[in-house]
Amino acid sequence: HVDGLAHTAHKKVVAKDGRPICVAANIGNLEDLAKALKNGADGVGLFRTELLYMERTQMPSEEEQFVIYKEAAEMLEGKPLTIRTLDVGGDKSLPYLKIPKEDNPFLGLRAIRLCLREPDIFKTQLRAILRASQYGNIHIMFPMISCMEELKKAKHLLEVCRQELDRENIRYDRFIKVGMMIELPAAAITADDFAKEVDFFSIGTNDLTQYTLAVDRMNESISALYDSMHPAVLKLIRMTIDAAHRASIPCCMCGELASDERAAALLLEYGLDEFSVSLGAIAETKSILLKSITT
Ligand code: PEP
Ligand code: MG
């Protein structure tokens, strides 16, 4: 089945109105990236860096991270590499980092909240990403932003890292793109404000669905209620894309809905610019999009 799709894997998708549509991959490490490229990915829309942190017994150093991000950027040969900053907490824990026990971890100290609480960990990663950025087309993306103050703080720490590197005469891409995930209803509803502060959006429908419908994405007993095409979720998606375009920034989707056949035509109609999907879904997503564009 997948072999039959091989011919579409490396095709470029262009919307009816002539807009190029990027079909990128979600990856967790360099092995994933190698597969993604083989499968025809136009770039990486989501590098889930937490896997680098979870696979070891101590915090990865700036140098260790730098080497991996640089390698990834070089492998992509100029195609975009969107690196998401550490998203742990919720269901993902780190053996060497104590997160206080919480009754509702998905509503707790997670992702950007944790990084802002632990600025040294955050800055180590930001410095590694910045240093790698001169070797390719790297974008930085912040997860789980709920309010403007978080975004401002994250951007401030990034600026502090840039100044440090300037003082140390270390080069980085001065025009590196900085974006945020829209995965909380609050962020989607206030997307117009956020759009003025970032270079791109990426919609995380996995969490957006969970938080909009109050349905735990891990709880199988209520999985029938977990519907990323619920009208409320679709409305938030549409609001986000519209807000992005009003501010002339692109909007990507890196949640699972991006590879859902039932949603493709609708997302194209909403004007989504980029679909970032799991490794096995790249060729299939291209084929679905091509089909819905020609019919
Ligand atoms: C999402 O929430 O849709 C997303 C892509 O992030 P993750 O699945 O890693 O939480
Ligand atoms: Mg998420």
UniProtKB/TrEMBL annotation:
Named cofactor requirement(s): Mg(2+)
EC number: 2.7.3.9
Cell compartments where the protein resides: Cytoplasm
Source organism, top-level taxon: Bacteria
UniProt-annotated binding residues for phosphoenolpyruvate: 48, 84, 206-207, 217
PEP-utilising enzyme C-terminal domain mapped to chain residues: 6-290
Primary subcellular site in the record, as a coarse category: cytoplasm
UniProt key word Repeat: no
Gene Ontology CC entries for this record: cytoplasm
Biological process terms in GO annotation: phosphoenolpyruvate-dependent sugar phosphotransferase system
Reaction(s) this enzyme catalyzes, per UniProt: L-histidyl-[protein] + phosphoenolpyruvate = N(pros)-phospho-L-histidyl-[protein] + pyruvate
Name the record gives this protein: Phosphoenolpyruvate-protein phosphotransferase
Source organism: Paenibacillus lutimineralis
